Amino acid sequence: MQTHKLFRMIVACSAISGVAVAVAQEPVRIGVVQPLTGPVAYDGNIYVNTVKMLVDAMNAKGGVLGRKIELVVEDGACNPAQSVNAAEKLVVREKVVALLGAFCSTSTAAMMEVAKKYKIPHITGISTAAQLTEQGNPYFFRAVATTPMLGEAFGGALPAAVKAKRFAFLVLNDDWGRSMASSYPKSIERAGGQIVATEYFQQSELQFLSVITKIKGSNPDAIILSANTQQAVGLSKQIRELGVTVPLIGEGSWTSDSYIKLAGPAAEGVYGLVEYVYTIDTPINQAFVKDFRAKLNENPSKFAGAAHNAINIVIDAIRRAGSTDSEKIREALKKADYNGIVGNIKFDDKNQAYGQSVYLAHVKGGVPEVVTTAKIAKP
Amino acid sequence: MEILGQHLFNGILIGCAYALIAIGLTMIFGVMNIANFAHGEFYMLGGFIAYYLVSLVGLNYYLALPAAVVLVVVLAVILQHSIFRRLRDAPLMTTTLVTIGLSILLEHVALMLWGPQPQSIPTPFPTKPLSFFGIYTTPLYLFSMAVTAALIVVGHLVIRHTSMGKAMRATFQNKEASALVGIRIDRIYMLTFAFGAALAAAAGAVLGGFIPVEPTAGGIITLKAFIVVILGGLGSFVGAIVGGLLLGIAEALGAGYMPTGWKDAIGFFAVILVLLFRPDGIFKRA
Known about the structure:
Chain A is an alpha/beta fold.
């Protein structure tokens, strides 16, 4: 009987140590939640393909901590409920050590609760709704500037950069558009500009003739817009078709290849206020663009840039932590001092990124050229 | 003044398209007693097929538009033959649920075939705007307005002056009596459904030149068409035309002189008023 118990204990112990050995050689698993279906599926797929490409390259160089990196991708569909389920599955079943995602701010807000519950570090490179980092969630990090931060950094430069005094806003009727219309005017007015009109359109709309006509009646020198690809195409075409020739300045997809191709001549001369543009003239970005073109056959969009930041910041933190323990990764992330495609990124005490560059790009001959850069100040 | 003129022009341009789409919806309802929630998908498919034919097959623009309409009609005939013919005597609730399901199905088929990217149909027209007395337009807008207006007139003539139109109106007024005098109800149903689908597809193909085509575009179009049909009276052809123009102009002026967030609310507000005070629509005629 006694020997029997002892034998069983020995078997159990060796089994546990066996598991421990297996864990040490297992890959480091990173969970990704992005919309692979639904209205922003196109951009979500670009994000996932970029992360895959970068992880393949890292694995070819030996991975991290001597272990391979393994991605586990789930579809969040830009839907909060589905994003939460995806994140739960990644943490509980797939045992990921860090989460990337989601995309739409509402989905990210839902997903960060899962990160908090299981104490797993979570990074977004895309969601810009300001309140996400205001909730004091210690496991959530944002590696992108919020709309108010962009407005603060760029509003003052706009009147000189586009040689305009009278600005009109034509923005999406949601968090994003409304926070643009409330954050840009202060710095524009300080720089001598004035706001002559503020108009909103709905997410479902593709026909903007009446609101463009209304803006036209206020006689602006430049129009500031927020829109994703599909609405940006309709807006810029219809604005030109109604005979409005003033410069357009857009936050969103205004410098992406797909927008420029779809909008055709209407994209010419458009300014984009962006967190990333593929023409940034630094060696690290040039190398990224070269790899991206070779693998995915197009120029990286801002979503590809966001993916590059997010995965590199996480892997850099794991390397510095020297461990895949989630607390240690979180501490390493807090101390991040990462130099990437948009410059240096650090996190403030609310885990909001600062120090990186943002860009005003001008589309010329189908190519977005960087006109001005600004640095995101520590909030 | 120029701005007012521009708003009216925009309103008529969009109003003609609303009217064209709503005519089909109101006829399908009047004749077949089906509230077709998949009607906007015919608009979307008209646009996507025209885009496919022009951009990817390389067909001439003026050939691609009618070809797209013909292909949507073929689809409508298949749907009518395989689904709606079997539901001829089913209650309105059943057919409504079927059309809602159909709209989801068609949207996802389009998503699988063409992807989520919005597309614009390349047109042979110059993109440079034209200006008349300060009102800006483009050759494409004028083409779109001419085609939609012409199709409305053609539709009206068909309904008023052909034997097919007379048979449709007879079926609308009394199904049993029409069958008694020798009208083949199944055939009339088929023609009505195909005719309605054709008009919506034509609107989609023409407007797709300046309003991007995307798989989810059908939903909002169906809603607008229902507003028009309720304004004009369910089953009323003239009501659909006047209702379409009214909604287009009301939206344009409303967005022009009220906060733009109200634009979509205007139509629904009008519907509530009409349902409260004139539940048969403004122009209801038996």
